[in-house]
């Protein structure tokens, strides 16, 4: 792949205005590419995550203790990173690093998987405790935290990001924090306000933590790339026709 910041041998010895223009990196003169629709969609992700967190806090007697739950931490990260990504898409700046933005997919998928597929592990510190009161707001919070935000983040990653941006090294970097959190939940269950996971639940959590990044990276390698239109109106090299 060619480097837009380097110049070819034919342009290195060019003189005059043509030579100066030829030696200018293409990235320095490329127009700003703004994506307002992507920015709006990512703001909706931020709003969904924050709304679910606020409703969860209103339905518990100890809102501050929710910060020790993995679901709350993952949704807070989704809200902050999606807001940052929305700003960058609106202003045309470079997107957030795939190392950070891509980590949201397995981080949000883990509590969603526990809530929808593994109800036996739904009482661990990886999920939000059930509220003692009933009502529409309390029923809406789990839907936002376990369904809407994870699915919207997955759609953002699949449809609005360039594929094959995730590196194999992320497969051991991303599980580092969830595994440390699992060890913390096993060693100090009172600090999280949740019962200690059983041996079966701990093994299931460990396998899910290590498998989800592998699945995410594998999908990233085979998903189709969006069609990019070439907006360059002339070649970057020198020719008699320029």
UniProtKB/TrEMBL annotation:
Superkingdom: Bacteria
Compositionally biased spans, kind Polar residues: 1-13
Region listing for Disordered, in residue ranges: 1-27
Chain intervals with Low complexity compositional bias: 14-27
Transmembrane segments: 43-64, 174-192, 198-219
Keywords, ordered alphabetically: Membrane, Transmembrane, Transmembrane helix
Protein name as catalogued: Integral membrane regulator
Organism annotation: Streptomyces mooreae
